[in-house]
Structure formats: C-alpha cells, structure tokens
Amino acid sequence: MLKVNKEQEPDFLLDYKRKHAPKSWKDYNKDDIRNKIKENILLFEQEEYCPYCEKRIYTNDDGHIEHIKPRDFYPKEFQDYNNILVSCNEKNSCGIYKKNNYDDKFINPVIDNPNDYFYYSIASAEIIPKSNDTKSNEYLRANYTIDILNLNSYELNETFLQFKKLRI
User: Fold this and answer.
1) Distance, CA of 16 to CA of 1 (rounded, Å)
2) How far is 88 from 38, CA to CA, in rounded Å?
3) Are strands 63-67 and 84-88 parallel, antiparallel or unpaired?
4) Closest CA to 2 of 65, 39, 45, 35
5) 67 and 78 in contact (C-beta within 8 Å)?
6) What is the Cα–Cα distance from 125 to 132, expressed in whole angstroms?
7) How far apart are CA 75 and CA 24, in angstroms?
C-alpha cells in the first residue's frame, strides 16, 4: 500500500459543486467531471498508482473512483475530497474486492502510513503485518486491510514478485 498525500480540493471540483449542488454521487455525471476527478487524483496525488495494491493505473485505464468510506454507508462523506482515491478496477483486484467494506480498523492511506503496518516478503511473495503480536491493534488493522483488499491474491503476489526482482 502507498501513502497518499492529498492536495487541496481542485478549483474545477469546487466550481462544479457550487454550480450543480450535487445531492448524491449520481449527480456527478455532468461535464465529464468523474474523469476530471480521476485524472487529477491519479496525476497529482497518486502518481498513477493504485494506493491499495500499487499497480500502475493510467488515466485512460479502467481505474475507478474509490470512496474509502463507502458512500452507501457514509452518505454525508460522498463529497469529502479526502475520502476519494482512484483504485484499480480489474477482476479480483483490490478495488473490486473491497466493494463497500470499511471499518475503523481499515488502514486509510490518506490518514495512515501503510509502511508502519506492512512489509513485503520476497521469500513468500506476500504482504505481511509488521507486528508479530496477533492481538495488537497494528496487527489486527494490517490483517483486516490485507483481507478486505485481497492484497495476497495470487495475481498480486506474482506481480509484486516480478516487480521486486527487477528492483533488486
């Protein structure tokens, strides 16, 4: 997982909110606004990487706008810019796998630094909690996040292994 340093909400989005006064996420369908949001976040905040699984997402690829706290369960936060990321959207990927899952245990890459919770094991090709204490809050949060994002799927582990071999 990658830490995401959110920028200030972009002017184009603030203008859109003033002009259209959206009441739900469905109201973000005019003026190609969703693509503008996605491109802005990918280019300026995420450097074209999924913050969950670290796969590359190109602005014209099938990434999707991810509400960290799902809009179905946190309707007041659907417009909170700090609640919006772009995640990958392929079959068995973290963006699809997460769906509407969220709990306070979830490691939020906007608030938390994922490097404090996980490490990557080249030997096992897995993401592993840094804490060995299975009852600690850090371990429970890391394990919960790994599970709901499917970070140890076969596809991701193979991708990580190939990527890490290239960097060594």
Assistant:
1) 31
2) 11
3) antiparallel
4) 45
5) yes
6) 18
7) 8
- How far is it, in rounded angstroms, from Cα 145 to Cα 5? 19
HSE (CB half, 13 Å, CA atoms) of 110?
16
Overall residue count recorded for the chain in this entry: 168
Would you say the C-alpha torsion 114, 116, 117, 123 has a positive or negative sign? positive
pTM for the model = 0.89
Model confidence over 53-94: pLDDT tens digits?
988 888 666 789 999 999 999 999 999 999 999 998 877 788
Beta strands in the chain (DSSP E): 63-67, 84-88, 118-121, 126-129
pLDDT level of residue 154 (50, 70, 90 thresholds): confident
Separation between Cα atoms, residue 54 and residue 85, nearest integer Å: 13
